[in-house]
């Protein structure tokens, strides 16, 4: 079967690999239909992704069609599903508390072991989320949106709360939309004017800030003289994450959604003076996936204009490097493996 392998940083190959065997009990054989390309994939291509080894078959943002099932399940052959790609142990303290997204022994499809940039894979039945009626392009974005939804749930936003989302990439856009769905007054900040324009014109966010031009002054003008009480950083940028401390109101909280390969440091007196709460947000839970699927089904979240670039396996080897160029204008890129589905 067709398989894309990232042999080493900067080098994809398209090859043939053996198809999976029949699924074991509790598993399903699925046909991969779409694969969303996310920051993890881009960083892996660059060679800057933490927790990563080569060669690797990428792909964890998946829309799949069930081919065969082994076990009791309400799912059926032919169902189109999103995949929750976080393989947890079920035994560690995090799993015992229901925090399967940060399992001590977590293995992520397409990161810690081979993923979905191939025609078929085996997936545990309990990691499949049916998506009746959703277009497959939206199904492939459920995982991306779930990361944003999880961060919003972590933050426990209040209705009307002034909330800043830094970073208007796909993760930040997901955070912003679910923060708005939770009733927050959302401000989006970025350094890319085209992405800010997309937030305003494509997604209906009234308030955006170009971080290159007096961001604190702009924030205070939008927050009645105060700073936001909830600040999400979804950039994965060391500079941005360090600067984010300066945007949090006294008594507020800072939620790091993105990560980078390095360390965060901050002024302890400043941190204590604000009685600031710092939260990390990692991956997503089954409940987050269900919230996202429900929101997409009900039209509470818009994906209009998100997918700016698509490629077949044959094309991806050539075009992928260009997707890292900011001038390419990529919001969300997608690998298309099969077109004969909804």
TrEMBL record:
Keywords: Oxidoreductase
MF terms (GO), sorted A to Z: oxidoreductase activity
InterPro entries, sorted: ADH-like_C, ADH-like_N, GroES-like_sf, NAD(P)-bd_dom_sf, Zn_alcohol_dh
Domain (Alcohol dehydrogenase-like N-terminal): residue spans on this chain: 25-132
Ranges for domain Alcohol dehydrogenase-like C-terminal: 170-297
Pfam family membership, one: ADH_N
Protein name: Zinc-binding alcohol dehydrogenase family protein
Source species: Phototrophicus methaneseepsis
Lineage, highest ranks first: Bacteria, Bacillati, Chloroflexota, Candidatus Thermofontia, Phototrophicales
């Amino acid at each position: 079967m067709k398989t894309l392998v990232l042999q080493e940083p900067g080098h994809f190959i398209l090859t043939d690999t053996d198809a999976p065997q029949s699924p074991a009990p509790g598993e399903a054989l699925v046909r991969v239909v779409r694969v969303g390309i996310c920051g993890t994939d881009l960083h892996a291509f660059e060679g800057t992704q933490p927790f990563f080894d080569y060669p690797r078959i990428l792909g964890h943002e998946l829309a799949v069609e069930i081919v065969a099932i082994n076990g009791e399940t309400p799912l059926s052959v032919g169902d189109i599903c999103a995949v929750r790609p976080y393989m947890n142990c079920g035994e560690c303290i995090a799993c015992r508390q229901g925090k399967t997204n940060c399992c001590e022994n977590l293995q992520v499809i397409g990161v810690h072991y081979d993923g979905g940039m191939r025609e078929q894979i085996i997936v545990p039945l309990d990691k499949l989320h049916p998506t009746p009626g959703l277009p497959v392009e939206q199904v492939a974005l459920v995982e991306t949106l779930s990361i944003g939804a999880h961060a919003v749930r972590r933050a426990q936003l209040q209705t009307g709360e002034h909330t800043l989302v830094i970073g208007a990439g796909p993760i930040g856009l997901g955070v912003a939309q679910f923060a708005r769905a939770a009733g927050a007054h959302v401000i989006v900040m970025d350094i890319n004017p085209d992405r800010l324009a997309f937030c305003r014109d494509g997604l209906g966010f009234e308030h955006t800030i170009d971080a290159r031009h007096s961001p604190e002054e702009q924030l205070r003008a939008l927050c009645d003289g105060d700073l936001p009480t909830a600040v999400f950083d979804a950039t994965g940028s060391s500079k941005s994450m360090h600067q984010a401390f300066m945007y949090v109101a006294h008594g507020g909280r800072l939620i790091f959604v993105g990560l980078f390969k390095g360390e965060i440091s901050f002024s302890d007196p400043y941190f204590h003076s604000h009685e600031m709460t710092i939260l990390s947000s990692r991956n997503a839970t089954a409940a987050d996936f269900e919230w996202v699927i429900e929101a997409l089904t009900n039209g509470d979240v818009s994906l209009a204009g998100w997918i700016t670039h698509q490629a077949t396996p044959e094309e991806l080897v050539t075009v992928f490097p260009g997707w890292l160029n900011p001038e390419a204008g990529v919001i969300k890129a997608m690998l298309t493996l099969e077109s004969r589905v909804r």
